Amino acid sequence: MIDLLCFEAKEGLGGGWPDRFWRVYRAVNLRRVARAGRAERGRIALPQSYVAQLPADLPIVPLETCDDRQRAFDNTERFLDGWYDPPDLDYQGFDLGQIVRYKVAVYAGGLHRAVRAVDVAERLLTETAARSVMVVDGVPYLERGLVALAQAQGRRARYLWPVLFRAPLVAAYDALQFRVDYRPDEVTLLGVAPPATPPTLAPADAVAWVIFHNHLRVMVAVLGELRQRGHTTAFVLPRQARRWAAFAALPDWAQVVWIEDLLTGEIAGRLEEAQRRYRALFARYARERFPAYFQHRGVNLWPLVRPGMRLIFERYLPQCVGYLDVARAALTSLQPRVVLGVHTKRAADQCFFRMARRQGIPVALVSTAFKADMARFARFDYGDLNLADLLCVTGEAERQAIQSHLRDPDKAVVVGNPALDHLAAKLDALPPTAACRAEVAQALGIPPARRWVVYTTGYINTFMFAGVLEALTGLPDTHLIVKVHPGESAAFYAARVPAAWRDRVALTHTELDLHRLLRASDAVVSYVSTTLLEAMLLERPVVVVNFSPLENPLPIAVYGLPESHTVEALRANVGRALDDSAWRAELLARQQRFVADYAYRMDGQAAARVADALERVMKRTG
Predict the structure, then answer these.
(1) Nearest-5° angle of CA 533, CA 534, CA 535?
(2) For the segment 330-376, what is each residue's pLDDT rounded down to a tens digit?
């Protein structure tokens, strides 16, 4: 008899054949887990979103109930300062270990994922008092952590699949996780040939550093305002920006500096030398340092974090050398009085802003989303806010939330969101609801007479999609429109819509104007997304979905906004917003209070307020 059977049931790897294989394999495993649960008479631990796919009489422990996000963050931070010797990662006085801190914690390094797996495993074993455990195949981190922790504590551990099957599966997963649907670089400099002729750069008062597509729109708004006031400006972008949707709208006056064009033969040589040096350093650390260092609750985390740490040493650290050299070249030529960005979590961002500070150039960060309490949960995502001399935040709620992260709280200034400035005029110019509905109905081929509920996706809430489908396709006379995030794959979601529901579900990626779609809707559902705010601005009732017992990073309960933790609650909350006119009116009023705190004034003047703050900074620096 097995006391606890655990199946993490991960979504899979990217798209294409790996994803198709993973979905079939997951379905097979769910059936095997159900049979094993009956035979072993133990409790079954798996994600809440898959509970409905098992027989109702089986004893289930939702994994989310054992997840403590704050504890995992705290335990992760214990590893972030001692994993390297500072002299080994010093480059011209810059501490590269600090620059790749986010990568080690939550992105390539996967340290947070490994620590969290062991923390969840420890809580599972404690709360179930299991003396014996079984996992499916040991592929997901949680299953590996559970087996390792159980064995370290003298408990029996078994696998559902035999070793001849699962060993190559684990090896394949480890080999593919950084190759399938994964971009190994922020801006690729390794192997890039320097231009035959270096670019000629005109000096600029304000320079915007942008390496992520979502950030270009806000910088266009801010630099456009500065240009109208007589200031010279420049954008520093990677070549991949040509493929961004926002790039097509870049104004004619924009001076664009391509990051890759700043490479020289000398910088390329230093990149190659750094790659050799850090590859050798990884080999030494892997032998002498990491196996003993990455220990948590008696479990050796090194096998879990090794693939990601190798990537950091072989690609991220060498390219940090290139990012710093490129930043020096750009800043020396452009001679800006202020540099702008959005955040500092990425290594390339940190390199540019750290180099600016070394040269005495002020750094300003302009927030692009209503993050607010996200600072408590996405601790590493914010990066080091103290690198900035000026923080332009979206609203009072965000200013209060980040104060504890700042050595000088007065540097945070509430301005609104420049990325939403265009909405002030655009929303007024949007066609009436009836015209928007006719346009969407024709584009998606859906009945205009039905009630439309728009669900906006995001990579952090993919696991909720199955429950959202179940809840919203169960509403009478309702059509679900899934608005896929621009950075995600529409095929990923299309493959997850059962054939029986396809006449009630439509998907759209980037084909439709987002705001016309939101105006056409009768209600909007999402987790943590800027689309919630945009729907509120369009006076559409909003329902937040959170199929997890974890606290929502946005304090929506303070405003009395509905949050749904179960399929039944989501169906009921959306149904009430659709059917109860009095409640809908009250909900819209509460949403306006939320908007006031998170978007400040929706008057189209946020970019002007940012420009005012930037001019004050430039005046101080001459």
Answers:
(1) 90
(2) 999 999 999 999 988 889 999 999 999 999 999 999 987 655 444 44
Residue type for position 604 = G
* Residue 411, SS3 per DSSP: helix
Q: How far apart are CA 614 and CA 618, in angstroms?
A: 6
What's this model's pTM, rounded to 2 decimal places? 0.84
Q: Give the list of residues 6+ apart from residue 119 with CB closer than 8 angstroms, or none.
A: 67, 68, 71, 72, 75, 297
H/E stretch holding 377 reads helix 374-377
User: What local confidence, expressed as pLDDT, does residue 622 receive?
Assistant: 66
What b/e string do you get for 80-119 counting C-beta neighbours within 10 Å, with b at 16 or more? Answer: beebbeeeebebeebebbbbbbbbbbbbbbbbbbbbbbbb
CA 159 to chain centre: 32
pLDDT at residue number 584: 96
CA angle 77, 81, 83 (to 5 degrees): 105
**Residue ranges with strand state E in 113-230:** 132-135, 156-159, 206-209
Contact between 207 and 334 under an 8 Å Cβ cutoff? The reply is yes
- Amino acid in the structure at residue 124: L
Residue type, 305: V
Q: Is the dihedral of CA 206, 413, 98, 93 positive or negative?
A: positive
Write the CA distances from 256 to 115, 189, 259, 325, 570, integer angstroms: 42, 18, 9, 18, 46
**In a 3-state reduction of DSSP, which class is residue 453?**
strand
Handedness of CA 426, 430, 436, 439 (dihedral sign): negative
Neighbours of 353 (CB within 10 A): 26
Cβ-Cβ contacts under 8 Å for 467 (sequence gap 6 or more): 48, 49, 52, 545, 547, 566, 567, 570
- Using H for helix, E for strand and C for coil, what is the string for 285-313? HHHHCHHHHCEECCEECHHHHHHHHHHHH
Q: Which residues of the chain have pLDDT under 70?
A: 10-18, 109, 179-184, 369-382, 549-550, 622
Tell me the pLDDT tens digit for each residue of 238-275: 999 999 888 988 999 999 999 999 999 999 999 999 99
Radius of gyration of the chain (CA): 25
Q: Which amino acid is at 308?
A: G
Contact 439, 516 (CB under 8 A): yes
The owner of tokens 């009956």 is: 38
Which residue's structure tokens are 């408590």?
A: 376
For tokens 């054939």, name the residue: 499
Q: Is 236 helix (H, G, I), strand (E, B) or coil?
A: strand
- Give the CA distances from residue 507 to residues 111, 440, 456, 485, 594, in Å, rounded to whole numbers and listed in that order: 35, 11, 10, 11, 28
At 166, which helix (H) or strand (E)? Answer: helix 163-176
* pLDDT for position 395: 84
